[in-house]
Each structure stands twice: as C-alpha cells, then as structure tokens.
TrEMBL record:
Keywords: NADP, Oxidoreductase. The keyword NADP applies. SUPFAM superfamilies: NAD(P)-binding Rossmann-fold domains. GO terms for molecular function: oxidoreductase activity. This is NmrA-like domain-containing protein. The keyword NADP applies. PANTHER family: CIPA-LIKE, PUTATIVE (AFU_ORTHOLOGUE AFUA_1G12460)-RELATED, NMRA-LIKE FAMILY PROTEIN. Residues 6-149 form the NmrA-like domain.
Length: 300
C-alpha cells in the first residue's frame, strides 16, 4: 500500500469500544471521519463527522458509502460479526486500502485460542480477509489487546468487585496482558498513522501485565474497609459447566465467560504478550497506580 491514510470510516460506533475509538479519531485531528449508520438508527456523532446511512446487508449500499475511503475500522459487536464479510467485499469493491476487523481482544493468532467455539466467527472473518488480501489490493491489520482493563473491572470480568466476592481462577497467579478502552482507541489512531509498519500483520498492545491476585491486592488497598471474600474456582470446572449449558442451547454470559476466562487468563493460550507494538503506536504503559485510579472510580 502506498500513501498515507486520510479518509477513515468507522462501523460500529455505538458500542462501548466503538464510541471510544470514534472520540480518539476525532481528537487526533488527523483524519476525515465517516461513520456508517444502520438505516433507521438515531445515532448522532460529533460535529464534522460524516454520518452515512447504509444497509449492512448490501454490498452495493456499503460500497457507495466507501467510495473515497482509505481505511475501514470495524467495531461491530458479536451479533453483527458475520456482516463483516459483506463489509469486506464492499471495501474491496470501493478500493479501500486498509481493513481493520473487529478483533480487539484475545490473541487468535494462538492456535488454542482459535479453537475456542466462541471465536469461530471471528476466525472465519479473519481467514476470509487473509484470503482476500492475497487476491485483491486490500490490506489488513489485526489488533490484539488481551483482556479489557477498565471494562473488565467495571463488568466484573477480570476481577469481580461489585459484591467484594471476586472469583479467583486457578490460584490467581497467572499473568496476562490487559488494556483499557482509551488505549485501544489510541492504538487505532497509531496504526493508521503507520500504514506501512502495520500492513498485513497483527499488532499487539497492552497497558500492563497483571494477575488476579495483583488486582485483588490493589482492590483491598483501594477499599480496605470492604468485606473482601474471594472465591477460588478452577477453570476446568467452570468451563465444564459452560459446556453443559451450551449443549442445552444456553448462550448467556454464564456460558460465555468461562471461555473468555480461558482465552484471557489460561497461561497456555497466548495471553501474556512477550512483545508489544506500544512504542510504534505511541502508547505508554500503565502502572499499578493507574489501576488504583480505575478502582477508586468503580468500587462503591
């Protein structure tokens, strides 16, 4: 790919991460930004952002909206992941240079992580994009950031803090990479500013490497008067329960989270990134004090 990226389209701007990425793109003042809006949606964006209504099920509708765009960033949620094939086809038809699919999480370059059922659709999209990049001019970047740090604490994922009874998995000493949503937004800006260095490859980022026990210690330090009472669980046990629930057709959070724990915290699943692209993308690492500040905001 030659030349810089100037015109950037975002798909999925209404989600938790999508809103942050949109804000970071706007704040960078480096791009002309377009947002794809589902027909019938009442979503509004910042002044100066071009919002285009599209039919996400139509290549023609999407391609018409992407005719002058250099890059497409997809932050489509899990219920819309499969629509990315249509979005990729439309991007190719429109001459888009770079496509960033909705990865933003577990390292699915890792073979064991790729085999987790919950990532099957992401893997299909990734394989589809990889193939298209060999037969068309489109290029790609995959972004892996490990577990969400701020979102993961707010939603009781990496540490359950809402009732002071965190679930500590397999002893809690496994070290894993974790990243806040604003840092992911900054990473998207960074990769767009470095199109050649991030061309047709995965980029790895994190704010900090932590363990659940470290997080618990910081939570106790932040709120020492709360009745902290950790519950110790085994990952094999909770994924076995999830297997049964899935066999019964139950696809709620109780069925999903154990597999996400596996991808995020099982040390054999490539979640402790040995190298990151923070320096290339202009990202600073965070400290334990940064985590304390997040905890102060969240612990009630």
């Amino acid at each position: 790919m030659s030349g810089s990226i100037k015109n950037v389209t975002l798909a999925g701007a209404t989600g938790s991460l999508g809103r942050i990425i949109l804000d970071k793109l706007v704040l960078s003042n480096k791009f002309n930004i377009r947002v794809l809006r589902r027909q019938g949606s009442n979503f509004t964006s910042a002044a100066g952002t071009d919002v285009v209504d599209v039919d996400f099920n139509s290549v023609a509708s999407l391609a018409a909206a992407l005719g002058d765009q250099d890059a497409v960033i997809s932050v489509l949620g899990s219920s819309a992941i499969t629509m990315q094939k249509i979005l990729i086809d439309a991007s190719i038809a429109a001459g888009v240079k770079r496509f960033v699919p909705s990865e933003f999480g577990a390292n699915i370059d890792d073979a064991k992580t790729r085999a987790i059922p919950w990532f099957a659709e992401k893997v299909k999209i990734q394989d589809y994009l990889l193939h298209k990049s060999t037969i068309s001019p489109i290029t790609y970047t995959f972004v892996y950031n490990g577990a969400f740090l701020d979102w993961g604490l707010e939603h009781d994922f990496i540490l359950k803090i809402s009732d002071y009874r965190p679930r500590i998995i397999d002893g809690g000493d496994s070290i894993f990479s974790t990243t806040s949503l604003p840092t992911i937004g900054d990473a998207v800006v960074g990769l767009l500013l470095h199109p050649e260095e991030t061309r047709n490859r995965s980029v790895f980022i994190h704010d900090i490497k932590v363990s659940q026990n470290q997080l618990l210690a910081l939570a106790k330090q932040t709120a020492p008067n709360k009745p902290w009472k950790p519950e110790h669980v085994k990952l094999d046990d909770i994924t076995a329960v999830a297997d049964v629930r899935l066999a019964q057709g139950l696809t709620d959070a109780r069925s999903l989270y154990p597999y996400l724990y596996r991808a995020a915290m099982d040390p054999t699943y490539g979640n402790n990134f040995p190298r990151v692209d923070n320096e290339l993308l202009g990202l600073k690492l965070k400290s334990e004090e940064d985590i304390v500040q997040i905890l102060k905001r969240l612990i009630k």
